[in-house]
């Protein structure tokens, strides 16, 4: 397969959770952008994309940014580099009522289930415009702490199911290692990939998706169900190997 566009999850796929790209990944991503269009689609907001990816790629990569597609908050937003700046192409913004009900429900159930932690790093509840996110330990929690909070994923599943009952008109799903994401109904990474195909003219059959949560409970799974060719990875180091293979195949 020689995909025309390669899409990646961000946390634990391109970088450690909520952390900047490692030097080896910066090099790999720049080499990939030299030969093919790349999309990053993740539950994080644009500020996280900037801190984790764009700031690490640096000004020298600006010419390559035209081949980079950014889809924060699971594809509910889409940004392209136009005229020397990142410009929003669309945003599926939640209404004030939807945000209020989402925030109230997820906090209430987290407290009732005993998941409301006293030691946190950064905001636990976030209004990201097109997505409401609950992060049990806060957005800036250390990777080790997040990995230890819910290693089996059971807490997230229980919380997700409880909140979903309150919000039948919204999409409630497990996000990162300690997070729950809430968006418009039917809006997930599969939605984002379909919108990407419409915007770029690249059919889904000519795309490849790389992610760490392609299991049925993961937030990358909808892309697999959509029928997009997928590669499952465990950590950014494995993704570097995938990128090396893709770059070599393009050069062949």
Termini distance?
12 Å
Q: What average pLDDT do the residues reach? A: 93
Strand order of the largest sheet: 3-2-1-10-11
Number of separate strands: 11
Into which percentage range does the β-strand content fall?
15-25%
Helix content estimate: 25-40%
Dominant shape: globular
Which ranges are low-confidence, i.e. pLDDT below 50, for 5 or more consecutive residues?
A: none
SS field, number of helical segments: 9
Q: What's the main sheet like? A: 5 strands, parallel
Question: Whole-number radius of gyration?
Answer: 17 Å
String of helices and strands:
EHEHEHEEHEEHHEEHEHEH
Structural class computed from helices and strand pairing: alpha/beta
Structure description:
This protein is an alpha/beta fold and about 250 residues long. The chain is about 40% helix and about 20% strand. The protein is built from nine helices and eleven strands. It has helices at about 25-35, 45-55, 70-75, 95-110, 145-150, 155-165, 190-200, 220-225, 235-250, and strands spanning about 5-10, 35-40, 70, 75-80, 85-90, 125, 130-135, 170-175, 180-185, 205-210, 230. Helix 1 runs parallel beside helix 9 (about 235-250) and helix 4 (about 95-110) packs across helix 6 (about 155-165).
């Amino acid at each position: 397969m020689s995909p025309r566009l390669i899409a990646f999850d961000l946390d634990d796929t391109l970088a450690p959770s909520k952390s900047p790209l490692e030097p080896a990944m910066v090099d790999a991503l720049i080499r990939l952008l030299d030969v093919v269009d790349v999309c990053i689609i993740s539950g994080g907001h644009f500020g996280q994309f900037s801190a984790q990816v764009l700031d690490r790629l640096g000004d020298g990569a600006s010419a390559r940014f035209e081949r980079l597609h950014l889809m924060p908050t699971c594809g509910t937003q889409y940004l392209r580099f136009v005229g020397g700046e990142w410009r929003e192409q669309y945003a599926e913004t939640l209404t004030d009522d939807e945000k209020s009900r989402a925030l109230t429900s997820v906090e209430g159930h987290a407290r009732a289930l005993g998941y409301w932690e006293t030691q946190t790093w950064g905001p636990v509840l976030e209004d990201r415009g097109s997505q409401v996110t609950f992060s049990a330990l806060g957005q800036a929690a250390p990777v080790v702490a997040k990995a230890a909070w819910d290693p089996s994923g059971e807490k997230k599943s229980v919380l997700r199911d409880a909140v979903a009952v309150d919000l039948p008109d919204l999409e409630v799903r497990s996000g990162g290692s300690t997070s729950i994401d809430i968006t418009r109904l039917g809006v997930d990474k599969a939605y984002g990939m379909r919108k990407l195909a419409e915007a770029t003219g690249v059919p889904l059959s000519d795309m490849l998706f790389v992610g760490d949560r392609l299991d049925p409970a993961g937030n990358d799974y909808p892309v697999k169900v959509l029928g997009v060719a997928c590669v499952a990875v465990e950590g950014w180091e494995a993704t570097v190997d995938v990128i090396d293979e893709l770059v070599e195949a393009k050069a062949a």
